[in-house]
Amino acid sequence: MTLADPKTFVSSAVKPADFDSFWSETLAATESVPLNPSLKLDEMRSTPDIEVFEATYDSYQGVRIAGWYARPRAPKERLPGLVFVPGYVSEPKLPNDLALRGYAAFSAAPRGKLRSNSVFNPGYPGLLTHNINDFENYGYRGFYMDAVRAFDFLASLDEVDESRIGVQGGSQGGALTLLLASLRPNMVKAASAGAPYLCSMMDSASLTRSYPYEEINDYLRLHPDDEPAARKTLDYYDIHNFVDRITCPIIVNIGLRDDVCPPETGYAVFSNIGSQDKRLYEYENCGHDSGAGVGHTAILNQFMDSHLKPSAVGGAQ
Questions:
Q1: Residue (of 228, 225, 202) closest to 215 by Cα position
Q2: Active site includes 288?
Q3: Is 273 helix (H, G, I), strand (E, B) or coil?
Q4: Cβ(51)–Cβ(71) under 8 Å?
Q5: Can you list the alpha helix ranges (DSSP code H) found in 58-167?
Q6: Helix or strand run (H / E) with residue 89
Q7: How many CB atoms lie within 10 A of CB 7?
Q8: Strand ranges across the sheet with 104-109
Q9: Catalytic, out of 130, 240, 288, 296
């Protein structure tokens, strides 16, 4: 249930005093793990124009993470890179469409996702409340780092131009896009976040009764005494508290009828983004698709192409 004017919403998320040091230490622990990247050609999913690979790398606490990597065949020059980060329930997409547009494209599968779930697999629902009463061991700590390492993986490839890497995703992917633009501010060239999730999380649990946020309400109904600890944990992970670090050009799109990620929280996180080159697209009659069905995909593609300068292959437009 949204406010009469969602633009008036004020987030209750509070940035902990040690927020920056907590994430600096987490990044340092992640980066101390050798990336150990590997690529295995998948002939069945490749085409005459693009090559598709099963990709793996090591992440926070040494967990092995998988993903799909696709690139144009025999590129004549270094390619722009594009990281695609997944939604909460969805499995990572095959990024063939992005490769056809001329990108070296990596579709990440953070821990718990298909082929990355042998060590950590809280399920869906499950991830949002996994160790929610323990901020140091909350499920999203490693999950967030897996997304950061996905960016590092793509940037490490010889055929990728490090100065032209973008990030995009919707819902949880929108949150992870904002996270990457925040934690790799000097490397992300452009970012597009649709219907961003994990923003003003405790507020979202009261603004909607839809899952995944209803997981928080379910948990607190059974464990009401854990509410202070849960709020403390979520403040460390709330994307609202990261985005003032963003410096790259960025677009955000929201649906004003979204009952999954309330538009109030979209307005709030957008206002907190630090970049001077940012634009919000509001779609009045759209829900969680946040405009994808009424033309926003074309806007997203044009935005990315204008900043990253790919060359389409195989007759792709």
A1: 202
A2: yes
A3: coil
A4: yes
A5: 96-100, 139-156
A6: none
A7: 11
A8: 38-41, 50-58, 64-72, 104-109, 79-84, 160-170, 188-194, 250-255, 278-283
A9: 288
Contact by Cβ (8 Å): 290, 283: yes
**Do residues 37 and 150 make contact, with C-beta atoms less than 8 angstroms apart?**
no
Give the tens place of pLDDT for each residue, 23-36.
999 999 999 999 99
Q: What is the pLDDT of residue 4?
A: 72
The helix-helix angle for 139-156 and 172-183 (nearest 10°) equals 60
Please give the share of the chain, as a percent, with pLDDT higher than 90.
92
pTM: 0.96
Asked whether residue 45 carries a pLDDT value surpassing 80, the answer given is yes
- Tell me the pLDDT of the chain averaged across its residues: 95
Among the listed residues 297, 298, 300, the one whose alpha carbon sits nearest the alpha carbon of residue 192: 300
Q: Which of 11, 107, 116, 171 is catalytic?
A: 171
pLDDT for 115: 86
Q: Where are the beta strands (DSSP E) in 175-223?
A: 188-194
**How large is the average pLDDT for residues 75-100?**
94
Strands (E), the chain: 38-41, 50-58, 64-72, 79-84, 104-109, 160-170, 188-194, 250-255, 278-283
The fold for domain 6-308 equals Rossmann fold (3.40.50)
Domain ranges in the chain are 6-308
Tokens of 232: 């403390």
pLDDT at 52 (0 to 100): 98
Tokens of 246: 């963003």
- d(CA 26, CA 24) in angstroms, rounded, equals 5
Active-site hit among 258, 289, 290, 296: 258
The pLDDT value recorded for residue 313 is 85
